[in-house]
Known about the structure:
The mean pLDDT is about 90. Helix content is about 30%, strand content about 25%. The protein has one domain (about 1-145): P-loop containing nucleotide triphosphate hydrolases (Rossmann fold). Strands 1, 2, 3, 4, 5, 6, 7 and 8 form an eight-stranded mixed sheet that branches. It has helices at about 5-15, 35-45, 80-100; strands spanning about 1-5, 25-30, 60-65, 70-75, 100-105, 120-125, 130-135, 140-145. By secondary structure, it is an alpha/beta fold.
Amino acid sequence: xxxxxxxxxxxxxxxxxxxxxxxxxxxxxxxxxxxxxxxxxxxxxxxxxxxxxxxxxxxxxxxxxxxxxxxxxxxxxxxxxxxxxxxxxxxxxxxxxxxxxxxxxxxxxxxxxxxxxxxxxxxxxxxxxxxxxxxxxxxxxxxxx
Length: 145
């Protein structure tokens, strides 16, 4: 599916959030600057989270608890070792399970073998300055483009 601008990216994230349940896991893949964090801002908006959503690239994760469902936003870009990434993920997943939180993970390539049931969203640059979104639904094995 084609998204033309930042406002549409946030709206897509907000709409996407309406279909999420506690303990949902979303993997976001795409190049730097593709709009992964903007999409998470939309998810947070859909969950009625009031905090300012920023990239967790340096912190590795941010936790937001003010919404109708808590949100854990992870970014594994700076991690180079899959063992460290998997241990970090498992630690954050335990907290997500305990708090019925939704997890969104940017740059998830190092942890995929640990996961069983997750949404996968691939964002790519479109030829005409927008973005293309490909969304894989784990429940129905469906792909939306």
